[in-house]
């Protein structure tokens, strides 16, 4: 199926964001917590499969976002490229990957410094006593790996705004059983 050029350009920008550092590399990820409140934080987009419409990121399995995703898998992502004036807002369903071989493959694709960030037994988001520090890194990298989660987001909505265009342009694309369907919206 031939994609709308605006949608293919959006996926190209997302692929670029995962192969080199671009403004879309650092995305805002929104989840919903157990009380129904929105939560948002920055994450690094690590992989993009434009054919499947899947974006992935690495995170700590003990972090709040992982529990939120398990409880409520629908998520939203947003990024903005100041250079091109393009905002991308994405919605989809997140999955915390369970397959050990896939987790291992993704773990090995991370740099040493990133892998080391999983080294502490201290749980992200828990209190530190005054003047306290998180526990130093465990020596055994196998323990680091146990703390690592790989999350895949199957995107089902892409909303692109181009604020460099005059007049502004907005297009939204939704995944259907037969492919992506798009329309132009009033920005
Ligand atoms: C530049 C930058 C990059 C970040 N990248 C990630 C990331 O790829 N994965 C991640 O889990 N957290 C990343 N974080 C930290 C998150 O924004 C967040 O503080 C942390 O994951 C805890 O979030 P949570 O309590 O909502 O789970 C990054 C933060 C910054 C400032």
Description:
The protein is 24% helix and 39% strand. It has helices at 5-19, 64-71, 100-109, 112-116, 141-146, and strands at residues 26-32, 38-44, 47-49, 54-60, 74-81, 86-96, 148-162, 169-176, 179-185. Strands 1, 2, 3, 4, 5, 6, 7, 8 and 9 form a nine-stranded antiparallel beta sheet that branches. A hairpin with a 2-residue loop joins strand 8 (169-176) and strand 9. The chain is elongated, with a radius of gyration of 18 Å. It binds flavin mononucleotide (FMN). Flavin mononucleotide binds at residues 26, 39, 41-44, 57-60, 63-65, 124-125.
Topology, number of strands: 9
Give the helix proportion (percent range): 10-25%
Structural class of the helix and strand makeup? Answer: alpha+beta
Roughly what is the average pLDDT, rounded to an integer? 96
* CATH homology superfamily: Electron Transport, Fmn-binding Protein, Chain A
CATH names the topology as: Pnp Oxidase, Chain A
List low-confidence stretches: none
Which ions, cofactors or small ligands are bound in this entry?
flavin mononucleotide
The number of distinct helices, counting runs of at least 4 residues, comes to 5
Largest sheet: 9 strands, antiparallel
Q: What is the CATH class designation?
A: Mainly Beta
Shape, per Cα inertia axes: elongated
CATH architecture title? Roll
Whole-number tally of structural domains: 1
- Taking the alpha carbons of the first and last residues, their distance comes to 27 Å
The rounded Rg comes to 18 Å
The SSE order reads: HEEEEHEEHHHEEE
């Amino acid at each position: 199926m031939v994609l709308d050029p605006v949608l293919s350009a959006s996926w190209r920008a997302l692929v670029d964001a995962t192969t080199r550092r671009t403004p879309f590399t650092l995305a805002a990820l929104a989840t919903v917590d157990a009380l129904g409140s929105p939560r948002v934080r920055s994450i690094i987009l690590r992989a993009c499969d434009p054919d499947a419409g899947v974006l992935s990121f690495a995170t700590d399995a003990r972090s709040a976002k992982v529990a939120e995703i398990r409880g409520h898998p629908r998520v939203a992502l947003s990024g903005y490229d100041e250079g091109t004036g393009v905002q991308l807002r994405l919605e989809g369903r997140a999955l915390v990957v369970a397959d050990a071989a896939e987790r291992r493959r993704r773990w090995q694709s991370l740099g040493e410094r990133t892998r080391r960030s999983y080294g502490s037994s201290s749980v992200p988001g828990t209190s530190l006593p005054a003047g306290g520090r998180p526990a130093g890194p465990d020596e055994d990298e196998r323990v680091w790996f146990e703390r690592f989660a790989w999350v895949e987001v199957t995107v089902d909505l892409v909303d692109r705004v181009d604020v460099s265009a005059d007049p502004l342009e907005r297009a939204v694309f939704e995944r259907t059983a037969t492919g992506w369907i798009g329309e132009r919206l009033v920005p």
